[in-house]
Amino acid sequence: MHIDRSIASRLKALGLVLPLMAFLALFFIWPLTTMMVTAVSDGTVRGVLPETAAALSDWDGVSPPGPELGAALVTDLRAPKEAMAFGDAVRRLNSEVSGFRSLLSRTANAVRDAPEGEVPDLAGIDERWADPKYWFAMKRAMPRYTDRFLLAAVDLERDASGNIAAAEATTSANRQIMLRTFFIAAVVTLLCAAIGLPYAMIAATSTGWVRNALLIAVLLPLWTSLLVRTAAWFILLQNEGLINDFLVASGLTASPVQLIFNRTGVIIAMTHVLLPFMVLPIYGGLLTIPKNLMPAAASLGANRFKAFRHVLLPLAMPGLMSGSLLVFMVALGYYITPALVGGAEDQMISSIIAFFATGTANWGMAGALGLILLVVTTLLYFLYGRLSRSPTMIGP
Questions:
Q1: Is the dihedral of CA 364, 365, 367, 372 positive or negative?
Q2: Up-side HSE of residue 348: CA atoms within 13 Å toward CB?
Q3: Which of 45, 285, 300, 312 has the lowest CB atom count within 10 Å?
Q4: Cα distance between residue 60 and residue 18, in whole Å
Q5: According to the model, what pLDDT value does residue 396 have?
Q6: What is the pLDDT of residues 64-95, one digit of tens each?
Q7: How far apart are CA 82 and CA 1, in angstroms?
Q8: What is the mean pLDDT of residues 132-143?
């Protein structure tokens, strides 16, 4: 009887957490798993040209392509295929060697027009088929899993011998955009910390309506859509916006200052949007600090700066670290604000992910770039967890 009650209680507990587990699996684990698999998957060409893939597996990639390769390719081109799948395979091969789009399209038309059972001479259709580099490009595109997208995400590639080498500077700028993303996120985090720490200290030491007003000022942006807040900054930062009107009217500047479509506007807008994520963790940590510590430090001869440096700041550091980590991780994935307020040289990695996902349907590159951001944020989270458990997170 006791065992039956124990099992029943466990089943009830499982029933309570089952909806949460299903939610996490459906909206968190499954998308992340799909992204990671997509980042290393590359079976587009193999699915369209299976016979060619089997023939290329026995080719050493050095000797001239034999007639069996041509026969396998002709068999694949004659087989019925979906236009979308064939187009994806052509784009994949064209990314390996420029000109594959016209080569494969011309060859497919010639093969379909040839009599049934006849194997046309591919070199006669297009002399490029006599060049082994096109066959070698097909061989490189055949594996189901590849590190091609992960390498391309950091401007690397594999050369003809299979070694990792730097990609040509004109082919990609993913590394530069990634560094730009980290730089902008770091600057926004530092500005949020510089503004958020004194603001949270003032709010924590205030009482009554003053504290309520300060907290409402922080929470109010969270109740407004991100798109609306960004659009508001788009209006404020224009040459004819309120900020430039004030600067010109007060005589601080003789003409409007360029505050939009550049990095200055991006940092200003992102700092405002993300400031609540810095203030609230610091404010929550400061409320747990006994209010008699600062007077006690003053009674022992410490001035205000020393009391702040040796008493208040170390106790506020967990909240400051939590806020910094939260702001930095959220800033890494920002898309709307840089897209609306920034210029061409201020777009972050999220814009490139959106371009690959929706503009070129290159889900492999989009997944690889997203996977890099996931790894970085995961490492930062574990680093914070290690620092937060260390008693020497800040020196005396």
A1: positive
A2: 26
A3: 300
A4: 53
A5: 45
A6: 788 888 889 888 888 887 877 888 888 888 87
A7: 62
A8: 87
Residue ranges of the alpha helices (H) in 239-362? 242-249, 263-287, 293-299, 304-307, 313-332, 336-341, 349-354
The 3-state secondary structure of 9-53, one letter per residue: HHHHHHHHHHHHHHHHHHHHHHHHHHHHHHHHECCHHHHHCHHHH
Q: Are 162 and 156 in contact (CB under 8 A)?
A: no
Cβ within 8 Å of residue 367, ≥6 positions away: 34, 35, 36, 37, 38, 39, 149
| Residue closest to 44 by CA, chosen among 141, 139, 140 | 141
DSSP state of 145: B
Contacts of 318 (CB under 8 A, 6+ apart): 285, 388, 393
pTM: 0.81
User: Are 282 and 320 in contact, with CB atoms under 8 Å apart?
Assistant: yes
**Hey, how many other C-beta atoms are within 10 angstroms of the C-beta on 317?**
17
Residue 141: count other Cβ atoms within 10 Å of its Cβ.
Answer: 24
Q: Please say whether the dihedral angle defined by the alpha carbons of residues 283, 289, 290 and 296, taken in this order, is positive or negative.
A: negative
Which helix (DSSP H) or strand (DSSP E) does residue 156 occupy? strand 156-158
Domains in the chain (CATH in brackets) are: 44-144 (no CATH), 174-388 (1.10.3720.10)
Predicted pLDDT of residue 388: 62
Q: How many CA atoms lie within 13 A of 50 on its CB side?
A: 5
